[in-house]
# Entry
Amino acid sequence: MKKEDARRHARRKQILCNIITFATVVLIWQLAATAYKSDLLLPPPWKTAKAFFFAVHDPDTLKNLLLTLQRVTIGFGIALCAGMSLGFLMGYSKTAMQLIDPVLGTVRQVPIMAWVPLTIVWFGLGDGPTVFLIAMVGVFPILLNTVAGVQSISADYYNAARTMGAGPWSIFKDVMVPAAMPDILTGMRLAVSAGWMSVI
# Structure
C-alpha cells in the first residue's frame, strides 16, 4: 500500500508541476504578446487557440497534415531499417565497424541543408526530397544507439547462448535484439524528433 500511495503522490505531483509549467508559459506568452501589440509578430494565446480550432476543422489543413505524416512515416521507416541493420552489423563485427564507420562518419558531418539542392536534382520536386532528408537525419541516431546497445552487451551472454546450442539467428533474436532494445528505442525517439524538424 505504501508503494501504491507513493506512486499516486508522485503522479499527482507530476500533474501539478505540468499544470504550473503550462500556466507559466501561457502567462509569459500573454505578457510578451501584450508588449509587442502585433498579432502578426506574436498573437496572444487565445487567438492562437482559436486559429488552431479552425485549422483542425479545415479539410485542406487535415489533408496536408496527413501528407506530412505519410512522409515522416516513410522516412522514419527507411531510417529504422537502414540504421538497425548497419547498427547491428557494426556493433557485432569489428571488421564491419572499421570498414563502414569512416564513410558514415564523413557523411554525418555534412549539414542537412547541404543535401537539399542534391535531393532536388536526384528526386525532383515532390515527396522524394523530403522523405530522403527525413531518412538522412533519422538514420544516424538509430544507427549510433544501436551500435552502442550491441557493444554494451556482455560477452557472457553470447558465451552462455552458445553453450546452450544457440546458432547465429538465435543469438541475434534472443540476445542482441532484447539487450540492445532500450538504446534502439532512444534512437527511434530522437529520429522521430529530427524527422519532424526536417519536414520542408
Summary: Residues 1-56 form one domain.
